[in-house]
Amino acid sequence: MTDTQSLIHIVKEAGRAILQVYNSHESLHGVQYKEDNSPITLADQAAHNIIVERLSKLTPEIPIISEEGEEVPYEVRKHYTKYWLVDPLDGTKEFINRNGEFTVNIALIENNRATQGFIYVPVTGVMYYTDNGTCYKEHDGQVEVLKVNNSISNRTAVRSKSHPSPEEEIVLDKYGVTDSISVGSSLKFCMVAEGKADIYYRHGPTMEWDTAAGQAVLQAAGGKVFKETSNDVFIYNKKTLLNGSFLCLGF
């Protein structure tokens, strides 16, 4: 296992860099668009630089795959048995919309499974992380262990602010969902992990760095992440880093 406190420090340092942009006029400028038309900001780049530099010093033997880094060919990464998977700023659209619901995500992938996760919310200072198979939430110096609800009825779904889909209704009806909340970024995984929601369904594509830290956090809290059409658990380092639809359950 890696040094949990050092990882927390790295994630928070990246979060502070994001807030410097968020709280300045620079957040209104410097927004560019990648080939897939997804936005990238000065904050994405600043957080990426910090995380890569710090991880490279902390664990020089572990390779890093970051959303904002250079693409690693499959012929190279298919040999990785352990690597860091990083989303320096998850929820860039939420950042641009200034609703505060964006996160810094770092996950450790071992043998194609997400085994550790660190999710930090810069605006609120809330940290979700795993350590020795347990899920924790830390805020204002207070640390609590998180467990899913294991509800058997009247379940709450957490839904995307930026990516709603009509397919959600079909899936959620199967699981006795009677209420819903809406948040951005990887916070949806965290809502299920801490029992504020019971189910999260995502229809359509995401990238592996969008889900890895959230999956690790949710699984450490007792939840599961499945491929939409099967009971297979999500795995990583596929030939393509594109994910299909998935279902998160806190019961």
General description of the model:
There is one protein chain. With 251 residues, the protein is α+β, with helices and mostly antiparallel strands. It is 29% helix and 31% strand. The protein contains 7 helices and 16 strands. It has helices spanning 4-22, 42-58, 74-77, 92-97, 167-173, 187-193, 208-220, and strands at residues 32-33, 39-40, 64-66, 82-90, 103-110, 113-121, 126-131, 134-139, 142-145, 155-160, 177-183, 199-202, 206-207, 224-227, 242-243, 246-249. Strand 7 and strand 8 (134-139) form a beta hairpin. Helix 1 (4-22) packs antiparallel against helix 2 and helix 6 (187-193) packs parallel to helix 7. The radius of gyration is 17 Å and the shape is globular. The model has no long low-confidence stretch (mean pLDDT 93).
